[in-house]
């Protein structure tokens, strides 16, 4: 049912107020889980209007209209009280609870008594402030940056957690985010395409998550539906997942059962097992790093490299990232004089491209390399050609180890 079905503004508001009184406006809770362990980390309260005939109206049907006429203020405080009441009862029943986030429309930004009302309401239920996370949509930042920065400071100073919601949905400004004392950056679901297969989109997601971490913000991805999305978000180090893959918004009784269970969501277990390759991959890497003193990933097409592992035993220290050609030149200078030319020729990009074009799988050379202690060691360097699923660039993984 559309809210236009309520007819006039007055009829709609009358119906809304009646619904508030009758308990028709109720929170559903959507779990948030740790991206790696699948453990429950908290939930978000999302309003549902349950009509007497059982029809459930989603927020899109009435929240925008309430935002036009300030009815949203009443709704948000109602949702906060319902959430506090739920948290209070969980505590009374000895259930281990986690923080629940509540949405506050940007209209609140213009209210002078927002923080005192927040404190008073939560205190009435005896809920410690750390269990309430205030979600403020990113668009509020754009409207009135200086006002919102001060407001978030005040909310934070009272011990509440603050999340910047819908980040990436609109006119995101990275510079505002750096100025606010938030705890959480919620990535808008529009940043996720079907399976995160688009190269540019992957770069954007990776960068936003890295940016969040540099500002010491927890990165929460919203709207995660597929294993592919989850897998990619994990590789980017995303902290928390909220999405249908782990659970849709659910009535209180179901959410309570989730808190009681506490641990990994049962329906998530198979996802975690199939996705366990992330940690298996790490173990494999640890084993490789144990065997090889130097592991480099390079993109020959773009003449770039970065060091994945470097246990230095040579005099020349090398930048951890840079131009591949320079890496080979500097590397050659650590070789025994007779071996320098051999090293430079074997690992020149020209030679590597030619080997790749011939279909060879690797290029290998053994050279003598001088260490800090003045001792020459025999070192084997092998460049393996690897294929990126997302580009035609020629990539290599270089592994070096001492073969004395
Ligand atoms: P939001 O705050 O961004 O909430 C997340 C929305 O994404 C929710 O929609 C949730 O059901 C949906 N979602 C979560 N995971 C997935 C997924 O994997 N796939 C898809 N397709 N959707 C997913 P919902 O509950 O319909 O709420 C819509 C919006 O209404 C919310 O967006 C929020 O802006 C607003 N809203 C909801 N409750 C309140 C409230 O109490 N106060 C205020 N001011 N706004 C609210
Ligand atoms: Ca939200
Ligand atoms: Ca959101």
Give the SSE map.
Blueprint: H1 9-22, E1 25-34, E2 40-50, E3 56-57, H2 63-68, H3 71-92, E4 100-104, H4 114-124, E5 132-137, H5 138-143, H6 145-157, E6 161-167, H7 174-179, E7 184-187, H8 199-214, E8 218-222, H9 227-235, E9 240-242, H10 252-261, H11 269-274, H12 277-291, E10 294-299, E11 304-310, E12 321-323, H13 324-333, H14 337-346, H15 349-357, E13 362-370, E14 376-386, E15 395-402
Parallel strand pairs: 2-4, 4-5, 5-6, 6-7, 7-8, 8-9
Antiparallel strand pairs: 1-2, 1-9, 2-3, 10-11, 10-15, 11-12, 13-14, 14-15
Helix pairs in contact: 13-14
The structure holds ligand C2E and calcium ion (2 copies).
The name of the CATH architecture of the largest domain is: Alpha-Beta Barrel
Q: Ends: how far apart?
A: 77 Å
CATH superfamily of the largest domain: EAL domain
- Report low-confidence residues grouped into runs of 5 or more: none
Share of helix, binned? 40-55%
Q: Look at the helices and sheets and give the structural class.
A: alpha/beta
CATH topology of the largest domain, by name, is: TIM Barrel
Strand-residue proportion: 15-25%
- What is the count of β-strands? 15
CATH top-level class of the largest domain: Alpha Beta
Number of domains: 2
Number of helices: 15
Instruction: Characterize the main sheet.
Output: 8 strands, mixed, barrel
Structural shape? elongated
Radius of gyration: 28 Å
The kinds of small molecule bound in this structure are: ligand C2E, calcium ion
String of helices and strands = HEEEHHEHEHHEHEHEHEHHHEEEHHHEEE
The strands making up the biggest β-sheet line up spatially as: 1-2-4-5-6-7-8-9
Q: Can you give the mean pLDDT?
A: 88
């Amino acid at each position: 049912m559309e809210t236009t079905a309520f007819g006039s503004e007055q009829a709609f508001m009358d119906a809304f107020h009646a619904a508030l009184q009758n308990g028709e406006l109720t929170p559903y809770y959507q779990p948030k889980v740790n991206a790696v362990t699948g453990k429950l980390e908290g939930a978000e309260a999302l309003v549902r209007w349950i009509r007497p005939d059982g029809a459930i109206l989603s927020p899109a049907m009435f929240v925008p209209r309430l935002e036009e006429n300030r009815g949203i203020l009443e709704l948000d405080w109602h949702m906060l009280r319902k959430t506090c009441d739920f948290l209070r009862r969980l505590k009374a029943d000895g259930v281990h609870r986690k923080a629940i986030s509540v949405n506050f429309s940007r209209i609140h930004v213009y209210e002078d008594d927002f923080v005192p009302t927040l404190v008073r309401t939560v205190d009435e239920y005896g809920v410690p402030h750390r269990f309430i996370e205030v979600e403020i949509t990113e668009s509020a930042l754009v409207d009135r940056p200086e006002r919102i920065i001060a407001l978030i400071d005040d909310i934070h100073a009272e011990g509440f957690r603050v999340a910047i919601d819908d980040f990436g949905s609109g006119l995101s400004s990275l510079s505002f985010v750096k100025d606010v004392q938030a705890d959480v950056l919620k990535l808008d679901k529009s940043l996720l395409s079907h399976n995160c297969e688009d190269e540019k989109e992957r770069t954007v997601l990776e960068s936003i998550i890295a940016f969040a971490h540099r500002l010491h913000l927890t990165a929460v991805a919203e709207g995660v539906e597929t294993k592919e999305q989850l897998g990619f978000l994990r590789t980017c180090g995303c902290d928390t997942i909220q999405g249908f893959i782990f659970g849709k918004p659910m009535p209180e009784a179901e959410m309570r059962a989730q808190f009681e269970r506490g641990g990994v969501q049962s329906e998530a277990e198979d996802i975690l097992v199939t996705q366990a390759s992330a940690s298996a991959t790490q173990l494999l890497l640890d084993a490789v790093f144990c065997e090889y003193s130097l592991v480099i990933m390079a993109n020959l097409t773009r003449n770039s490299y970065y060091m994945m592992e470097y246990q230095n035993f040579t005099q020349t220290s090398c930048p951890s990232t840079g131009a591949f050609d320079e890496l080979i030149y500097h590397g050659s200078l650590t070789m025994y004089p007779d071996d320098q030319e051999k090293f430079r020729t074997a690992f020149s990009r020209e030679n590597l491209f030619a080997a790749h074009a011939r279909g060879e799988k690797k290029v290998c050379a053994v050279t003598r390399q001088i260490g800090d202690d003045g001792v020459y060691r025999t070192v084997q360097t092998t460049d393996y050609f690897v294929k990126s699923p997302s580009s035609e660039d020629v990539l290599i993984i270089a592994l070096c180890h001492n073969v004395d």
